[in-house]
């Protein structure tokens, strides 16, 4: 088979949406292809860590454990692909997956040595992308299948390609984003630092400080988020996030880069001024990362979370799905990310007898598809 034809078949996988046929080696083939692709990327990250890994992140994980995870993933992917090839099921898909595994092995696999390297080189967050994609997909796809809100919604639902592109870009540009955010925080918020206040905040008991950091971050996020809804110029950017017509673990990744940067600067800037401990801030970042994905997920949580008092306290998919609805009663409502009572206090909570909305997206469906067109949308929209 000629390589252009093979490439065309491979890329066709990423143009498809809908449920995959079972019993034809396609589901396991896609898993094997994904793991094979990640294995190749991981090998490249081992070869060029100074350019392809995130300095802050690589200080926190154990390389030996990552090597073992990589080996297990390669064995699983190779086994799936080989079994399907023996049974003559989706040969081109599984053949490509097996070729990727062999390529990763030929490049050194999980045994690639990592020598000393400088920390101050320009980089892209390939390691962050690999780890987050692997972890998020394994955790949240499983949760969505075990406790689905919309049972007939497939993993590869319409528009997943756009959200996955947002996911890739947001992760690979983490280095540039951190550089811009850190620069902006020190330039915009540095003059506001008051050491006595930082000393008091840093001296709080751990759980009191953790609660306070989440509360403060959510209050800043609430008003920043509300501004993106109520100021027409800012809505141009935020409309990108709201254009997702299906809610799942990838939908939260659909963000305009301008909004991503400004929101992070506003939240982390306030946390910096108040002087929260680095450990507490790191835990908050883990919590907000999980909750941001979970609250967009295609998940039905236990009914107790939809009733008082929990519905007034914690933001869950029940609460946040309404924020993404294009129904009139949901417009400009449910802004909070962590504590639902913030919306109840400021009078912006949705009032509905229904537990979930029936439709998502922007009112009027005016957002173009595709990552590039969505990034350009705020500057080209005539509305």
How would you describe what is shown here?
With 383 residues, the chain is mainly alpha-helical. It has two domains: 3-123, no CATH class; 174-380, no CATH class. The chain is 62% helix and 0% strand. The protein contains 18 helices and no strands. It has helices spanning 3-13, 26-47, 49-52, 55-58, 63-86, 91-106, 126-146, 160-172, 174-189, 195-202, 206-230, 232-242, 257-274, 278-294, 310-313, 317-323, 341-346, 371-380. α2 (26-47) packs parallel to α6.
**Biggest sheet details:** none
Fraction of helical residues: 55-70%
Beta-strand segment tally: 0
Give Rg in angstroms: 22 Å
Mean pLDDT score: 93
pLDDT < 50 stretches: none
Number of helix segments? 18
**CA distance, first residue to last residue:** 49 Å
- Helix/strand order, N-terminal first: HHHHHHHHHHHHHHHHHH
List the helices and strands and how they pair.
Elements: H1 3-13, H2 26-47, H3 49-52, H4 55-58, H5 63-86, H6 91-106, H7 126-146, H8 160-172, H9 174-189, H10 195-202, H11 206-230, H12 232-242, H13 257-274, H14 278-294, H15 310-313, H16 317-323, H17 341-346, H18 371-380
Short account of what is shown:
The chain has 383 residues and is mainly alpha-helical. Helix content is 62%, strand content 0%.
Features:
0% strand, 2 domains, globular, mainly alpha, 18 helices, 383 residues, single chain
């Amino acid at each position: 088979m000629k390589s252009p034809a093979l490439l065309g078949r491979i890329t066709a996988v990423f143009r498809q949406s809908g449920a995959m046929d079972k019993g034809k080696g396609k589901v396991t083939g896609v898993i094997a292809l994904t793991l094979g692709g990640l294995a190749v990327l991981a090998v490249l990250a081992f070869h060029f860590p100074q350019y392809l890994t995130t300095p802050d992140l690589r200080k926190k994980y154990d390389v030996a454990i990552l090597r073992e995870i990589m080996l297990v993933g390669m064995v699983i992917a190779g086994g799936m692909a080989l079994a399907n090839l023996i049974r003559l099921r989706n040969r081109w898909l599984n053949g490509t997956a097996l070729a990727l595994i062999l390529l990763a092995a030929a490049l050194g696999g999980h045994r690639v040595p990592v020598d000393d390297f400088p920390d101050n080189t320009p980089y892209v967050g390939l390691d962050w992308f690999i780890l987050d994609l692997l972890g998020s997909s394994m955790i949240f796809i499983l949760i969505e299948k075990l406790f689905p809100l919309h049972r007939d919604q497939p993993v590869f639902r319409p528009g997943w390609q756009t959200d996955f592109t947002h996911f890739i870009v947001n992760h690979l540009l983490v280095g540039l984003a951190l550089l811009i955010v850190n620069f902006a925080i020190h330039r915009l918020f540095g003059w506001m630092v008051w050491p006595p206040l930082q000393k008091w905040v840093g001296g709080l008991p751990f759980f009191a400080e953790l609660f306070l950091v989440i509360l403060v971050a959510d209050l800043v996020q609430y008003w920043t988020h509300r501004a993106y809804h109520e100021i027409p110029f800012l809505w141009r950017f935020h409309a990108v996030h709201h254009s997702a017509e299906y809610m799942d673990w990838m939908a939260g990744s659909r963000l305009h880069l301008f909004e991503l940067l400004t929101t992070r600067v506003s939240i982390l800037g306030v946390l910096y001024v108040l002087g929260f401990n680095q450990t507490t801030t790191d835990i908050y970042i883990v919590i907000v990362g999980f909750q941001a994905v979970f609250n967009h997920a295609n998940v039905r949580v236990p009914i107790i979370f939809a009733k008082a008092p929990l519905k007034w306290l914690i933001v869950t998919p029940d609460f946040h799905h309404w924020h993404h609805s294009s129904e009139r009663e949901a417009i400009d409502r449910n802004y909070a990310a962590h504590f639902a009572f913030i919306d109840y206090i400021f009078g912006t909570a949705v009032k509905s007898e229904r537990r979930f909305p029936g439709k998502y997206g922007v009112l009027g469906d005016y957002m173009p598809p595709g990552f590039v067109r969505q990034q350009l949308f705020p500057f080209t929209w005539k509305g």
